[in-house]
Amino acid sequence: MRILILGASSSGLYTALKLAQREVKVLLCEKESSFEGRRLILTSYFLEHFPLRPKVLYEVKGYRFVAAKTEGIFYLKKPDVVLDRKDLLFELLKECEKYRISILWGWKFERMDSQRALFLTPQGPKEIEADYIVDAMGVKSPLRKALDPAPNLVFLKQAQIIWPSSFKDGLSTIWLRPDLTPYFLWLFQDSPKTGIFGVIGENKEQAEKALFQLAQEEGFELCGRTEEGWVSLFQSKFLPKHRNVFFIGDSAGHVKSTTVGGVVSGLRGTKALVESIQSGRDYFKNLLPLRRELMIHHLLRELLNTFNEDDYRQLITALKDSSYLGRLCRDTLFPDLFFSLVKSPIPSFKLFVHLLPWLMKKGIWKLLLKR
What we know:
The strands form 3 sheets. This protein has an 8-stranded mixed β-sheet. Strands 6-2-1-10-17-16 form a 6-stranded mixed β-sheet, covered by helices on one side. The chain is built from 13 helices and 17 strands. It starts with a strand and ends with a helix. 37% of the residues lie in helices and 30% in strands. By secondary structure, the protein is α/β, with parallel strands linked by helices.
């Protein structure tokens, strides 16, 4: 059996590594010749569940949420870590080299012809035949673009700034500004003296306008790198297997719709795929725990997209005297919500009773019935 992997993303490299460890023959093709960097925040789940140790640039001890001049600070049970995407990819590449995995750099995928993949390479057109093809090309994947439903894309833009002296060390700030974007803006530290100020928008124009307006309001001083790109959010109707092609990572939309984070979700999807290839079990069935997790985030995002600034203010006010939010992990939201109800039934019930009238007013019941 021969597996062809398209794209040296974190999901693509991790798939190659896990399959090679199980003595499956793999070949990876990547259209670029180098990696692009981008600052990331990952939860403690990453360090606990994946045997990878890229350089940790900084730790996030908690989050400060701001809306309509109201703020709430929520300290995490376990700190998040700040990494650079390039460091993570080099760490994966180093592990792949131990297993002598073949990687063809500068091979641009063109199209499929039955079980053959056609490429444009530095040496001219080439083709490769494989039993299975794994699409890890991300949002630019021509294979994914050709399938329904169309990818649900949002735009990310972030810039490095001088860390403001008035902001607490190790505490990230999240601005909830529906007047600027239905998503959010953020600031987290990547060194003692610098931070990463960013935004998610529905498109590039909205993201850039929101970023520069809030930077002006806060008096932030831009000092270095700027990073941007499209992100593909989870879609429940998209099935991540088409004929002999498996989709993983951003190509599959394995991205949390609330926080727009996809590294850990992508790696979890990779584990499900490798197990499917090895055991012959249906890929979709192996993905069910991850899809359930992503569906919770999807439903929350649909609700949050109806919020105005006063809604966010009420939510922060309701939550800020509770440690509830700090106990939840973004990568295990579904089980964490369940176990919070079991372990702390009285505080959870009180919070639910407090929020219920407001949630009903927001039409949460209509959203749940629709789903």
